[in-house]
Amino acid sequence: MTALNLIAEQPDFVVLDKPAGVSVHSEDGAGVVAQLSALRDEPLWLVHRLDRDTSGALLLARNREAAAALGTLFAARQVTKFYLGISTRRPQKKTGLITGDMQRSRDGNWRLAREQTRPALTSFVSAAAGDGLRAVLMRPWTGRTHQLRVAMKALGAPLLGDSRYGGAASDRLHLHAWALSFVWQGTARCFQAPLPDAGAFRHPVMCAQAAAWWPPEQIVMPAPSPAQLARIGADQEDC
Predict the structure, then answer these.
(1) 81: which residues sit within 8 A by CB, 6+ positions away?
(2) Cβ-count burial of 75 within 10 angstroms (0-12 exposed, 13-18 middle, 19+ buried)?
(3) A GO molecular-function term, please (predicted)?
(4) Alpha-carbon span 103 to 14, nearest angstrom
(5) Exposed, middle or buried: residue 77 (CB in 10 Å: 0-12, 13-18, 19+)?
(6) What beta strand segments (E) does the chain contain?
(7) Residue 65 · residue 206 · CB < 8 Å
């Protein structure tokens, strides 16, 4: 069974520091939701998702009422999320807004198209991460499958360990769900998943840059216009 560490425990929900390489669902074995439910001997409800290879903050409801309310917050985009990524290549620009429709390519992967019918939107800023690597702080405004991985590829800087989208080889995907915040029962809540003690996340320069970026809400990066936000539609996935 995978070691599972909690970031926070509240009456209505828990926040798990999801390990990389484990699915949230039970696919070829028990997923993290089933594992944690068994460990705690209580049912837990998944209200958003992370890719199998993405680590970091995962919110799980402890009752049906909370699951419905939290799901509504995600659907209304009232949950702010920040991710950290690492690439071996420098993005085409230091900061910006990545926007475009997500389309399936012939090989089954996703790609970022020029069309803006229902665009995926990601704000980002990058900095040095040590040893020629680049750290990227990303704020997704939408939650499409593989959104951040495809956005990094579109910037010419696929994530380290992301062989599916052209990233350099590594023992793990260097994408981490770092923070999420929302208002719950009238109180602002913010939860941080510690940097993974693995791969290039351990580099002292990367650790220092993450500290300089905290809290991520204070980092200035381009945001979507009201017109762009009006076109994005509903999401059912997460990054």
Answers:
(1) 139, 140, 143, 177, 179, 180, 239
(2) middle
(3) pseudouridine synthase activity
(4) 34
(5) middle
(6) 5-9, 13-18, 45-46, 55-61, 80-87, 95-100, 102-104, 110-112, 120-130, 133-140, 175-184, 187-192
(7) no
Q: Is residue 179 classed as helix, strand or coil in its secondary structure?
A: strand
**What contacts 228, CB < 8 A, 6 or more positions away?**
99, 116, 119, 121
Per-residue tens of pLDDT for the chain, all 239 residues: 578 999 999 999 999 999 999 999 876 667 999 999 999 999 999 999 999 999 999 999 999 999 999 999 999 999 999 999 999 999 999 999 999 999 998 888 999 999 999 999 999 999 999 999 999 999 999 999 999 999 999 999 999 999 999 999 999 999 999 999 999 999 999 999 999 999 999 999 999 999 999 999 999 999 999 988 888 866 655 56
CATH class label, 5-230: alpha beta
Q: Which residue ranges make up each domain of the chain? A: 5-230
